[in-house]
Amino acid sequence: MSWTDWTLFGVFVVGFLLFLYGANTYNATVGYAGIYLFIGAIAAYLIIYIYKEVTKPEPQPTTPATAPVAPAQNP
User: Fold this and answer.
1) pTM for the full predicted model
2) Please, are residues 44 and 8 in contact by the beta-carbon 8 Å criterion?
3) Range of 8's domain?
């Protein structure tokens, strides 16, 4: 996994934990910050993934390798 995947995964987990902490302590500010981090990590991952897929170069067509032709044998 690349460093962006690990970073976004970390933000995802922190957002989820902040949401749980905010819900447990009835702190709306922390809870909403967790939700925004949670959703933001998913959105950032999708944007980066779609950008990589759109800008991917098309594969070059390959010609099949021809087998060597055996010399004709006289009967």
Assistant:
1) 0.69
2) yes
3) 3-54
- Convert the pLDDT of each residue in 23-55 to its tens digit: 898 888 999 999 999 999 999 999 999 999 999
Does some domain include residue 22?
yes
Q: What is the per-residue pLDDT for 51?
A: 93
Q: Establish if 20 belongs to a structural domain.
A: yes
Instruction: Give residue 56's pLDDT.
Output: 86
66: left (phi over 0), alpha (psi -120 to 50) or beta: beta
Alpha-carbon span 38 to 9, nearest angstrom: 9
Q: Identity (one letter) of the amino acid at 36?
A: Y
Between CA 40 and CA 3 the distance in angstroms is 17
Which residue bears the tokens 């957002």? 15
Answer whether residue 39 is part of any domain. yes
Q: What is the DSSP letter of 26?
A: T
